[in-house]
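Moderator note: this is an archived Q&A kept for reference. The question asked for a predicted structure of one protein chain; the sequence and the answer are reproduced below.
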Amino acid sequence: MRVLILGGDGYLGWPTAMSFAAKGHRVYVIDNYLRRTVAQQTQSEALMPNPNLNDRAAIFRSVSDLDIQVQIGDCTDYRTVEKIFREFQPETVVHYAEQPSAPYSMISYDHARLTLNNNLNATFNLIWAVMEHAPDCHIIKLGTMGEYGTPNIDIEEGWLEIEHKGRKDKFLFPRAAGSLYHTTKVLDTDLLWFYVRTFGIRVTDLMQGPVYGLSTDESDM
């Protein structure tokens, strides 16, 4: 399977790339180093040294004899995303290419604007590239439990059935984000759901909690 990973340099992106490659899939990753730039600006760099993306791919190749194709590029630039889709024709896309910090998203106007532009434009460009160049491609989108806030009822598995004035219907579970970052994730979900129900694209929107850990089987090689 041809797997494209947006945000492939990140804490989740690179381990995901190695895992897919180790399982025999063709893997292509793109990243613009936004996460590294933000970490440097806020003096919150990783505890462990991280080689750049090209070096990571070279190291992985040297210990596994497996190739991961790498591009340094910006997913908010549609022509960059479109070019990859035309050349690679992904069958699955894993979308991590977002500014992921809630506090950062609310520091100032510039930080808020960057978060909105990056997260929404990257998601929209992915949707449009799938529609134009790979309509059977499956989008796997990383959401967040923070979309739901903290309601005083159980959070259902995606959907909530409601009965009102004698009629029933099923809706996406209501969202109540607690930060601008989480609000961009809600907007991502709404964008994806619109294109799923209107144009039939294939999407899995994963609402996960915090992910933690120091290594994976592939990074320990």
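Archived answer notes: Strands lie at 2-6, 26-31, 68-72, 92-95, 138-142, 159-164, 167-172, 202-206.
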